[in-house]
Design a protein that fits this description.
211 residues; Nucleotidyltransferase, domain 5; five-stranded mixed beta sheet
């Protein structure tokens, strides 16, 4: 379904923003090739921070779990290597990208992913009119089930990956095409909702002419 690999990422964190001192506590990165998840990178992360009780209540991630986790200096280089030059995707991508870059900057790393897809924005454009685009409610609307606990990185990343594949499948069926270039989804993310349909009609019309 995808012409090139996409890595769906999800971070759990100790706070809402790097700007207010939030650090990463868990990450899941799932490589999507063709129409399925082919590799997984999942780890708790020790950044040496205290875990607020509200975060433990939301995620189930405790102070002991984080204290016993691999240090961020080990996890982040391996994560950046896992992502490589694939297209990166996340649900509410600006959140996850901000933590990826903050933790990378701290360690002198340079993520080299090829474009960023936000599955929230993409869903608003491919599946308009749904009552909510939060991950849990969107999953219910599209009949996607969580295999693990919500608000844990792997479960959220897996649901987000299935969501991304459903969006790609919808485009394949709508425009009678066998594959989707992830860069097309990056471009769709950047368009206002009103411009998406004309853009896609032109894009796939040109694809048909070339083929």
């Amino acid at each position: 379904m995808f012409e090139k690999p996409v890595v769906m990422i999800d971070f759990e964190t100790s706070g809402n923003s790097p700007a207010t001192g939030g650090r990463v506590t868990e990450v899941a990165a799932l490589r999507v090739e063709g129409g399925q998840v082919t590799e997984r990178f999942v780890s708790l992360i020790n950044c040496g921070v205290r875990i607020p009780s509200m975060i433990t209540e939301l995620t189930g991630i405790t102070q002991r779990m984080v204290d016993n986790a691999p240090p961020v200096a080990d996890v982040m280089p391996a994560l950046v290597d896992f992502i490589g030059d694939a297209t990166l995707a996340a649900h509410n991508a600006s959140f996850d990208a901000s933590f990826l870059h903050m933790e990378s900057d701290r360690l002198g790393l340079w993520p080299r992913y090829d474009g960023l897809i936000c599955s929230v924005k993409l869903s608003r454009r491919i599946f308009p009119g749904l009552p909510s685009y939060s991950l849990g409610k969107l999953a219910r609307s599209l009949d996607i089930r969580f295999r693990g606990a919500a608000h844990r990185a792997e479960a959220d990343a897996e649901v987000s990956a299935i969501l991304l594949l459903k969006a790609a499948q919808a485009l394949c069926e709508r425009y009678a095409t066998p594959q989707i270039d992830p860069q097309l989804l990056v471009r769709v993310n950047q368009l206002s909702a009103a411009k998406v349909a004309p853009f896609l009609s032109t894009y796939f019309g040109q694809q048909g002419v070339r083929s």
